[in-house]
Structures are given as C-alpha cells and as structure tokens.
Amino acid sequence: MVPPSFYLILSAILFTLGAAGVLFRRNALVMFMSVEMMLNAVNLTLITYSRLLANVEGQVFVLLVMAVAAAEVAVGLAIVVAYYRHKETADVDEMDLLKW
Amino acid sequence: MEMVLFFILAIVAVAAGLGVIAQRSAVRSGLFLLVNFCCLAGLYLLHNAQFVALVQVIIYAGAVVVLFLFVIMLLGTEQAEESPDLRKYHWIAGLLLGPLFLIGILWALIPVGTGLAPAATEWLQALAPTDNVREIGAALLTDFAIPFELASVVLLVAIIGAVVLAKKRLEG
Asked: How far apart are CA A80 and CA B21, in angstroms?
C-alpha cells in the first residue's frame, strides 16, 4: 500500500522539474515540453485526491486540463512555427519583436 | 506489489523528467517526455483511473509528443545551441532555487494530504475494480456539462488559431 503522500511528493518533484525546465532552458520547444510536464504533475495530484476522496470529479478535471493542454500545444507550436519563419530561431532570448 | 510498481514508475518518471530538461538535443528531450508521459499513465492505472490512463497515452503520448517531434524536425531546431556562459549561472541558480521551490510546494501539499487521513479506508476500497468510465461520463454530462462544452469551444478556437498563426501570409 503506497501512502498518498508519496504520490504528492512525486508530483511535487515533477512539477519542480518542469518549472526548472521553463526557467533554465532557452529553446522554446523544450520550454513547452516542461510546461506539459508541470500540467502532468498537477494531473497526478488531482487523480491522487480523486482516489483519496473516493469521487470521480478529480478525473473529470484531469480530462478538462488535458483539453486545455492540447489547445495550448497547438497554438504555442503554431506561434513557434510562425516566429521561426520570420527570424529563423526558436531561442526565446532572441525573441524581441514585441520589445521596443 | 503496488509499492514496487510505484517506485519503478516514479524513478523512471523523475529520471525522464531530468532527461527532458538536461538534454541539449530537443529530439531527445521529446523522447524523454514520451517516457515520462507513459510512466504517468502507469501511475494513473495504479490509481484505478483506467480511462484517464488511456486518454493520457492517446492524447499526450500519441498526439502531443508526435506534434512536438514534427515541429522540431520541421524547423530543424534540434541543434539550437544555448550560450554556454549563461547556462553556467542558470544551473547554479537552478541548484539553489529548485530544491527551495520543491520544499515550498511540499510544505503546502503534505499537511493537506495527511489531514485527509481519515479517508484512508476509502483509499483502500478505491482499489477494488470499478467501472469509472460510466461515472466520468455521467459527471461530464450532468454536473460538468458547461465546462465540458466550454472545452469544445476552447479546442475549436485553438484549431482556428493554429491555422491562422501557422499559415503563410498572402501578399497583396
């Protein structure tokens, strides 16, 4: 029997890894991957509580989070593709079109 | 048995997560991300959330990672070099701030988890195989009908947005 706090600790570790990835990588695609990892860590927390509280609503929320994550990936990757077409780079340090 | 599976999946998931952020090649990061998603699907199965585990494999592993790999290979950004002098300071800051952030999350999360300990008997009962697809479907179409419909609007907007953003602008 795994105590529920183990799942919570695991999801905290995964969330921290995702946050670190967003902060320390400069490749826009890898940053998106890290955001996905953070969303997955939150999903694991939701499912843990769904089981702990013995109701199904946590899993419903996970499905909605997945829908938002899919939308985010589609739009985010479209932005990266459009930017790359202009500037030939996916490095966020060089993305300064909106900066004066 | 659950303990053994949990530790295998947890260790592989954390190792794959480290791989995602430590690999210099974006393709390898994407493949590590795939491993991470599959481990999380396994953890969902341990939680008796079969439907979510399948959706995880189909949507994340099947669609999201493939989309990432398509874009990486389309753009050819896998060799994008990051400036090494900046990276060094980034990693020092990361080693200091990452654990601090982790402690902050755990400090907030663990008391809540242990405060719910009286529900531990239900935690045991939840292991019994139940047909939760039916329950999820019922919840989605009754209590969560409005968020469910809003999710479809979000997806539609995302489709249109992706097409508009990614298409070549017509000149003149």
From this structure: 19
What are the residues whose beta carbons fall under 8 Å from the beta carbon of B5, sequence distance 6 or more? B42, B46
Task: Tell me the residues of chain A between 24 and 63 that have a Cβ less than 8 Å away from chain B.
Answer: 24-27, 29-30, 32-34, 36-37, 40, 43-45, 47-54, 56-57, 59-60, 62-63
What residue spans define the domains of chain B? 1-81, 131-172
Q: Confirm if A67 and B55 have CB atoms less than 8 A apart.
A: no
In sequence order, the 6+-apart residues with CB closer than 8 A to the CB of B86 are: A26, A93
Q: For residues A12 and A39, is the Cβ–Cβ distance under 8 A? A: no
The whole-model pTM stands at 0.86
Per CATH, which fold does B1-81 belong to?
Four Helix Bundle (Hemerythrin (Met), subunit A) (1.20.120)
Q: What pLDDT, in 10s, does the model give residues A13-26?
A: 999 999 888 888 88
Contact across the interface for B139 and A78, Cβ inside 8 Å: no
Is A54 in contact with B126 (Cβ distance < 8 A)? yes
Q: What is the ipTM of this complex?
A: 0.90
B window 11-30, beta carbon within 8 A of A = 13-14, 17-18, 20-21, 26, 29-30
